[in-house]
Amino acid sequence: MDFSDLESIALRLEDDEEKLRQVEAELAWVKEELKQKPKRDEKEARFAKLAGYQWKDESDLIRRAKALEEKREALINDIKANNQSFIEGFSSKDLTVPLEPKPIVESGTFFFSFRNGVTYPRTVRVISKIIGLSLPIVLEPVTISERGVKVVEEDQYLAKEKVVEAFEGLQKTLALKLKQPLMRRL
Amino acid sequence: MALEHAPLAPNPVICASFGHCGIGIGAEAYRWILIDVGADPRRPALKGEKEQIQVLRRYGGTVLRFGIPYKKSEIPLVPRALLIDLDPRAANLILQSYPELFSMKDKHALYGMGGAARNWAEGRSRFKNEIETKYDVQRRFEELSPEPVRGFNIPFAMGGGTGGAFASAFMEHVKNTGEGTQVIATFGVLPEFGWDPVILGPASISIVMNLDYQIKYSDIPILIDNKALRNLAARFGNELSKRSSIVDELPEELEIGWRDYRNMNLISAHMISLFVASFTRETEWDMSNYRTWLASSKPRFVYPWLIPIVPKESDIDSIISSISEARDGVLFDFEGEEPSRMVGEKGSCCVLVKARGKFEHEHRERLRKIIKDRFPTEDKRIIFIRIPCLGGEPGGVLVLLNNKAIGNKILSIAKEAEESWDGYRAEYEKWGLKQEEFKQSLINVVNHFS
Predict the structure, then answer these.
(1) Could you report the predicted ipTM of this complex, rounded to two decimals?
(2) What is the pTM of this model?
(3) Domains contained in chain B, CATH given
(4) What single-letter DSSP state applies at residue B299?
């Protein structure tokens, strides 16, 4: 598992979350309409009687609400599954974080960019969201952003050690969210 | 009364006890130490040069100091102890019950406006507002110890609000304001969920925060576990009931809340007295040596193994022969897991041997075997430290274990804390513990113990 795989999962995850937000907003509107329905139906029926025609309910709200509920359920399941895959992938011992081996050095900091200038905005966003940290992710002296990893350190080797520690810390903490016995994973 | 040839004393070590549990254990540890030197804990005074030399040989004035003489020939012994709590009741009770022991009266105690509601964040915030700004903490130390302070022994409970939070804030205060030479030893007590009066979620969050502060600021973090202590207290109840305790002398109507912990605190006091003896008596070991021992360890935490639980004999053969007790004397509970499978390759231990007579190669081998049977450790990673056993006092062995066997239990507490956080977040953020800080501490603790 590497960051590209995680980025794909994160893309699906974020897409589904966006869809879920839309479905929930629509569902909320439909439910509100359904609440108002008895009052409106009564008025429509009375008007139809007055005007001398047969009134028929064509709003289809109930069927629409049911379909939205089903869609919502399916999205929640997909999100759960993707979330689980993301956590499993990120906390896997085989995780590869594609960092450039040679950092850019700037007055007391080392910046390890992701290889070939690739960015991983979704992966970093999902990690921060699951763990509950803000962006960029700061684990003193390491800062993880979509472009790479910055370390405030004087020595390059110590900086690399800090990067490893920061990722291990994140991996192990994400693994807490898995239901398997901890030591088997960590 | 000046001694003509007084031994040179190491610099003082102050026992800073935090919260109800910390105060109980700290006060009991002093009582144990005073009984060790043959003093009456209710009125600890020395009646002559011989007794003074005896005390100086045992504790070197490190944890006890000589007070202003009562009469011409009587010199009081004063604990270098500070009892600190938000709720004044525990410290008051000890001061009132032992006015001659804590003879500097309220100089021995600092307290605030009432408990911290089992909320670590509230405790930390109120330490800063009600203790650090209200009292001149540095001056309190100087009153207890005019000489430069060498280090601190800090007992506290990790699952509550005041003890753990105060201990955390205090450690940070010492490390940020001291000169870097002061050594901190912490005795953090893990609660037994379902038995101790702690709330599972908040207690787990408190434990995570306390562990993170100990990782950052404690040189010798020692973990003890109430579940193990409770089992041992019940098993050795008869023997422990023959030892006198500070609880026995509290007014009957006030001993509720202390009685249940009497025997548990005695076991902790025995352990602390052996630990303290390792650097206060004439040994080849200094308090700061523990810091180097643990500097590169992961986890940099130790848990104690006390042999025997209740001291009886003083010769090494009899101590080692109490093997049936030896197996039970680990003051940590592994929740049914077998620790031998979890110790890791780089585990080490420090064996403090307080016994009379010679400590031969054969004794070391026997002790090594006992330790290795349960906690497989390379011979070269086992350190032996001899502590003189003087007068008629009984001896004992304290094995301080540093290995990964405690990791599983700590990780399950971390998991509980992580799952509880969302529910309690607002309550903690109100007192200044933001999600960002908690999560960073959680990551640090999980990384450290896995």
Answers:
(1) 0.77
(2) 0.89
(3) 13-294 (3.40.50.1440), 303-405 (3.30.1330.20), 408-449 (no CATH)
(4) S
